[in-house]
Amino acid sequence: MSEESAERVTRLRRHLADGTTDRHERTTSLRAAEYRDGDIAEAEREFVFGRAPVIAAHSSELSEPGDFVRVSLPRNEIVLVRQQDGSVRALVNACRHRAAMVVTEPQGRCRLLSCPYHRWSYNLDGSLRTMTRADTVGDVDPADRALVPLPCEERHGLVWVVDNATAELDVAKWLGPEMDAILAALAIDRHVVFESTTFDEPVNWKVMQDGFLDFYHLEYAHPATAGKLIHTNVAVLEDFGRTCRWTQPRKSISRADAEPPDSAVLDGHLTETHFLGPNSTLVRHPDHLELLTFRPHPTDPARSVMELRLIAPLPGATGLDPEAWTRRWTRNWDLVLEVLTAEDLPILRGTQEAVRSRDAGDMMLGRNEIANHVFWRELAVLLADRPDPDAVAAGSAPAARCPTRGGVSP
Ligand code: FES
Ligand SMILES: [Fe+2]
Questions:
Q1: CA–CA distance, 45 with 123 (Å, rounded to integer)
Q2: Ligand 1, atom nearest to 95 Cα
Q3: How big is the CA angle at 151 (ends 146 and 154), to the nearest 5 degrees?
Q4: Distance from residue 166's CA to the centre of ligand 1 (Å)
């Protein structure tokens, strides 16, 4: 265990002994409109998802040239395609003839992309390959008719995209040196997606994301499951600006009391959660990873999609035979699905119904809800320089105030 990890464990043990946790410098109030207002949702599509990188897939989900995966992003329907040279491209999934959806299956393997409407075909890189009855179509420069690419980069075994054809993408720069190094050390590219599923929920995406940044609800909402495994309301936060990581002690940490504080054994008694950007949360359990991604609905503020992936080390790296490997993570997968569907999602759906109430009053984040503070702060940073609609109407568009980073105390 590194010196830095040992220091985190020392702080966690102090919190456990004292009944404390890392805290934000102040409470913050939240408005119900955040979860139901169409203008706020549109600003988020443009100024959050139109600019920030999001994780669209794990590399193992499209491992061979021609492998493709369709993804519905808030601004664009896209298809990720593994290229002949091994790179990945993100293409807007709209035919440049008359906008039929070119790739209609959710995923698969192909040699070219063929539109079902009039059978124009595209190469894997999105360039126009052939037009049917081309002689009759008239003058078309194929260079003008390629599928539109979005910025796309593969890094740390994950495929990152910005949902905006005019944006730029530099994942290392986005993550910052600390989080980039943390993800490199996790060796996510030497893992595979063991199982994944999609939840299409009648819930605003921020209610969903907030629910999975929350380490305060464990023993109350999950008394017989997650609350038994992980200590409630105890965490140490490392705030890197756009991203953060927090570490929670598992209940089993008491069994490690006899171990020296620098023992690698302690790693097995911690859960680390990485907030990687507005749609992406990566949880490191002692023996596997869980990736949660959240996508607002393209038009309805009260709907969103959450994807859940259980990402496991390759069988060869675990020493388990294939059956034992499958059994081990099947147990994990069944448990996490049970917790989500029986315990988390009913509460989150209820939240969305409750904020329909015009007289609900405002809400708040406690000082203890530090990861949620980072999420809301970073949303505000992305939204801060959007034009103010009233000011635009009046002929000037000053930037909103950008929140200050920092403010977490042990
Ligand atoms: S819309 Fe795709 S070929 Fe016509
Ligand atoms: Fe939960």
A1: 29
A2: 2
A3: 115
A4: 24
Q: Which of 190, 189, 170, 172 is nearest to 181 (CA)?
A: 172
- Calpha distance 13→216 (Å, rounded): 17
Q: Which two tokens stand for residue 192?
A: 């595979």
Q: pLDDT higher for 44 or 258?
A: 44
Domain boundaries, the chain: 3-52+169-373, 63-154
Closest to 182 measured CA to CA, from 249, 234, 240, 263: 240
Q: What rounded mean pLDDT belongs to the chain?
A: 93
Q: Encoding tokens for residue 97?
A: 């003839």
Residue keyed to tokens 């996490």: 336
Give the residue carrying structure tokens 């979005």.
150
Residue in this structure with the two tokens 């081990």, named with its chain if needed: 328
Closest CA to 241 of 156, 161, 179: 179
Angstrom distances, CA of residue 105 to CA of 59, 82, 110, 150, 334: 19, 16, 11, 20, 27
Phi/psi for 87 (5° steps) reads -80, 175
Helix (H) or strand (E) run with residue 394 in it: helix 389-394
The Cα–Cα gap between 39 and 159 comes to 29
CATH of domain 3-52+169-373: 3.90.380.10
170-181 confidence digits (pLDDT tens): 999 999 999 999
Which pLDDT belongs to residue 398?
42
Handedness of CA 366, 367, 371, 372 (dihedral sign): positive
Q: Whose CA is nearest to atom 4 of ligand 1?
A: 118
Residue 157 has pLDDT above 60, yes or no: yes
User: Which of 93, 112, 115 should be mutated for ligand 1, with most atoms under 8 A from CB?
Assistant: 115
Phi, psi angle pair for 213, to nearest 5°: -100, 5
* DSSP 8-state symbol, 144: G
Of 79-93, 105-119, 376-390, give the lowest mean pLDDT range: 376-390
Is 6 exposed, middle or buried, given 0-12, 13-18 or 19+ CB atoms closer than 10 A? Answer: middle
- 258 pLDDT band, cuts 50/70/90, is low
Instruction: Evaluate: CB of 173 within 6 angstroms of ligand 1.
Output: no
Domain 63-154 part of CATH 2.102.10.10: yes
